[in-house]
Amino acid sequence: MNLIHYLTGNAALSLLCIITLFKASGAEQTPFKKSDGFFLGPASIFLVLIKMATFDSGMLNIDESIMLSGGRTLALDPRAWISVDPTTSGPLNFLPSIILIKLADWSSYGELRIIYTLVFQIPTVFILFLTFKRVSNSAFARIVIIPLILTIGFFYFPDLIHASSENFPMLFLSIMLSALILISFGYEVKRYHLIIAGIACASAFYVKLQVTPIFIYLAAACFILLFFVKKNRRDGMLFLASFIFTHLLALLIIWLYGGFYDFVQSYIIGNLRYTTVNMITAELVTTFLKSSIRSLLPLLLLGFLIPGIFLIVIRKSLTSIDLLYHAGFILTIIVTIYCIIKPGRYFLHYTLLLVVPLYSYMVWLLIKYEWKPSKLLVPLASLAIAFVFFINAKSATRMVENEKQYLSDIINQKLVEKLYAGRVPGDRMAVWGWGSYYNHAARLVMGTRDVHFDFQTSYKSDLGKYYRDRYLSDLEKNHPRWFLDLSLPGGLLTNEDCKLIHFPEINNFVKENYHEVYKTNTEVLYQKNSDERSK
Fold it and tell me: 184 in helix, strand or coil?
């Protein structure tokens, strides 16, 4: 991480937020106060500047290389589950990398992270800001959007910064919760907004299977509010129709190109099996809570206001509709937490899923109970921003000083040079292991649809046989020019059971059709015997 870029960007963002607090609470009408662009424009620029801190840092998470190598392959053959199996992610998550590779073949991790900021994070901020502005006013919206902007800007752990599959759902959550907030306050939701919300709810299933319960719940909540509570049956049916039609269209497309069987076997059955491998434990929940509090520290700026809001709630008599809305938001947060911990393994980037639901409920409370900024808000909030910046800067500096090597440092450059020499666009390489970073570094198309070998080696049942048979079938069909074995002891995420020799059918195919051309302690590269290029 370039610490100067990171600290400069966050210092500028913090200063902008403090200035915004003073301007939003003042009575003087200035261009800064009249135009939201004077706030949102610089905030967006500073968020991009902060992401530039890791532009040259290489791969921060192996998922980034999966996105890029999978994106290159899908750009040639867009049939998800036929050309690329997205495993626990979904095919829509590869759209940014597909577009990026199409625009510039040399694009890499830094560009991908910038795209994620521009396409997912900044639009999330804009959508929620415009929603709060509509139900309140511009000054209020600028004040309450500050914690969200700082939360995104203050991320410094590589696992939160990398181009993770949680960014797309964040955008969809903002679209969906924006509609629900407008409905809850009696505002008309434009028809196009309802259609987009229905499409977003359905599309989330094809972005990341893990978030499906969240969006099914939100879709049901939106339909119930429109159809039964607000008695707006036409809008309710419009939303439901867009949700159902999107699903039917997606499933029809998958069925037409012949991917339905693999879609069911891998995306549904395989991923459900993935969620049952590890059980939810107290240690897992504790780790999640500690990591989330540490990662979402700027949201505590809003959290300090919530106890006072609840005192107001206690004094007032709650109507049944109020209880319904409270229960709805709280249940959204509970379902989100369930989806985060259900896989039985916790990765810090899962916390991104919690940002929008938690933040939206906190701001909804402020609007619902007519919170007004006091005279002490500006100095206290400014001190809080300065304090959080100091803590964040100190933690980020400590992390950089003790920083371990980036994952990209595990790449053997001699191997990359050998693969790249004589490369012809369209050449394929199959990998036995976690080696998508080699496909990306050498700009090679995937030789099989598998982005890793986890399911082939860890599933011992009929499901594991399905993955192994499919892997062998892809080798026979695609005839990749290269085969890279990364299952040797000491390799990334390998163990004795993963060795290629323990899978005789695949091993025999490699021995019969390939010859060894390069070997190290952790890597063996094979080249196809014939001169025939990859199919």
Answer: helix
For the record, the structure tokens of 123 come out as 């639009």
CATH number at residue 455: 3.40.50
Dihedral of alpha carbons 87, 89, 90, 96, sign? negative
Residue 311 CA to residue 475 CA, distance in Å, equals: 65
State the pTM of this model: 0.93
Same domain, 306 and 185: yes
Distance, CA of 338 to CA of 288 (rounded, Å): 11
The answer to whether the beta carbons of residues 24 and 142 sit under 8 Å apart is: yes
What range does the domain containing 517 cover? Answer: 411-528
User: Residues in the chain, how many?
Assistant: 535
Q: Residue 341's closest CA among 327, 326, 354, 360?
A: 354
**Cα 263 off chain centre by:** 21
Say what angle helices 122-135 and 138-153 make with each other, to 10 degrees. Answer: 160
Residue 302 pLDDT exceeds 90: no
Token reading at 508: 């025999």
Counted domains in the chain = 2
Q: Are residues 49 and 104 in the same domain?
A: yes
Residues 374, 461 share a domain? no
Taken in order 87, 92, 96, 101, the sign of the CA dihedral is positive
Please check whether residue 448 is in contact with residue 471, taking contact to mean a CB–CB distance below 8 angstroms: yes
pLDDT score at 406: 56
Dump pLDDT digits (tens) for 317-343.
Answer: 678 898 899 999 999 999 999 999 888
The H or E element that residue 309 is part of is helix 306-315
The DSSP-derived string for 144-168 is HHHHHHHHHHT--SHHHHS--TTHH
